[in-house]
Amino acid sequence: MLKALLDDAGLRAEGCAALLGIAPHMFEQWVNKERDLPGFIIPELASVLGVDAKVFKEAKVAKAPAIWFKFRDSGTVKEQDRELVVLIRRLGFYLKQLNSVIGFSGDKWQVHFQLVSKKLEPARHESPVVQGEIAARVLRENIDLGFSHKALSERISAPGDVIRGILRNLGILIIEMPVPESSIDGCSFYVGESGPDQGTPCLFINTFRQNWFRRNYVLAHELAHAIFDIAGESALVDSWTHGNRIEPSVMEARADSFARNCFASREVLRSLTSTLGLNWTELNAKNLAELVAHSQVDLRIILASAVENNLISEEQASQYGKMRIIKHLRGLTAHALTTKEFFAAPRDTKVWSPKERETTIPSRTLRLPVPYIKSVIDACNSGLISEGKAAELLMIDYEVFMERFGSDLVDLAA
Amino acid sequence: MEPSAPGRSPAGKRLELIVCDTDALTQIFCTRHETILKQLHTQFGIHFAVTEAVESEMFRPNRRHADCCRDGFQKALDTGLITILSPRTLGQFTSNNPFVTYDSMELLGQKYHSVIQRGEAYTHAAAHVLKCAVLSNDWKAIRDADRLGLALEHPTFRVYDLLVFLHQCNEFAEKACDGFRKALHDVGESPHSAFANRKFREGLPGFYPRLVNPEFEIVGSLTETELGDSYRVELTKLRNKPAD
Q1: A386 with B87: Cβ contact below 8 A
Q2: What is the CATH number of domain B17-157?
């Protein structure tokens, strides 16, 4: 049964064992039915593979869930991507455990997703571009994505600064890490046992060759898929930078429009025009850098939106797109710094380096989200979990945990 | 925590089974001191067992000391010195239905696992269900479990409890005990804090043994020094050696 599931999912037993931290020979024995699957691994394995735990307990014959068909070998998806999905789904299992211990429901996203879908219902006949625009507006208004009138007038924040925190507070899992060998730019799928009722939406963004401004767009794009598509499609995989993009489907066109309107909607561009005193017919590199710094999204997205809203022509967009804005941008926002520059900059609070956020599973690495690590440390410091458990939740060895985070722990006995 | 009746395990019967956790077994196997387990088995009739979760941890590649423990641990499994707790083997340790017992262990293990690490969680769950003792050095797990309200109502021995017990029974000379500390040091493991940077003789007065033989003079501290000390178990030599 386990063998059939793994075959169906396109996962190698040996690779799976390594990712789950199980001795290969033991995993092999379970796969070959030489030994019964032990109870301790069933909850985790069920969650990772996306099946009901009963499948293993009652030794039922089961097919792999649809998500694994979406991640089957193709021009875009390779074995390393499936392995990464295994690790992310394992993190999803631990996230659920952590949420349950700290008393975080983690399902607020459902209310907002349902609200967007409900508000969009009357516009179902509209083009996907209009649907995306409406959905972005509804979401922005309801979760205060940073471009509310108040936020704009008071310059409190912009979506890029707040979107991750807001989505995580709603219970959505966001993974951003570089995977150079992958062709995937972003994808969204559920993590958890099975189905949208039990699962948690996960948005993955491959940060390799994608700057922060581009990543914001990809994040919003994957969010659109999570809102509209993954309940039916199980997973959506996007690959633009590797030229694998085909003619956009309704789902992709809607997600594009949604992402564009999260960061560079008509209202946002209008507001920035007056705030920054811009003349769209005579923009220079500095003006364009200011637009990127304030809207917090890739220049190409701003220009596409400006064309769509008749602020500039296609030719002007092409001309502006060739301007080099990086020098100005680096002077305007820390988000334009390289990783090295970012970590070299002085700051008051401690920032964990990317290396410190990595799991210690030898075969494949997962870079954990900072808020997740923080929640684990807080749970440990509040006495809700043991240090050993904290290390397990972070998928690192205990010794490494103490080495990395020992100074962040408080002595509860004292 | 309520202490057990002196000389008896919490179930009121002679101590026969100790469920071992990864950290304690690691210290025993990476220092090649399997003899501690062997002596306790042959002389005192103690059976040692591990949960499948601990078996998995012991064999997990890339774990600290995994390479130096693997062969010794495998041999202990092959020779029956250590038994893996499963529905097939549980009949040796309980008169209840082994499948029901296994399910109870798994259920409790899952509950513990939400707050403590997997190996510890399933080890303590097994000991709770089987009403036996645990071998684990992780005092933090005991402290955390106590604080988290998990009912660990069973004795938890540290490796040094076994060592001091064998020393008390004249089975392990002082020199051999010092040899164990040196072997731990050589592989980068720490002894119990009472023996840190001290010879066995010097550390002993600061150590409250949780396993004692009433037929010999009690050694070590007379007062409890840490959480878990309230469970002191008395154990005497077997009159007849156990059949393997």
Answers
A1: no
A2: 3.40.50.1010
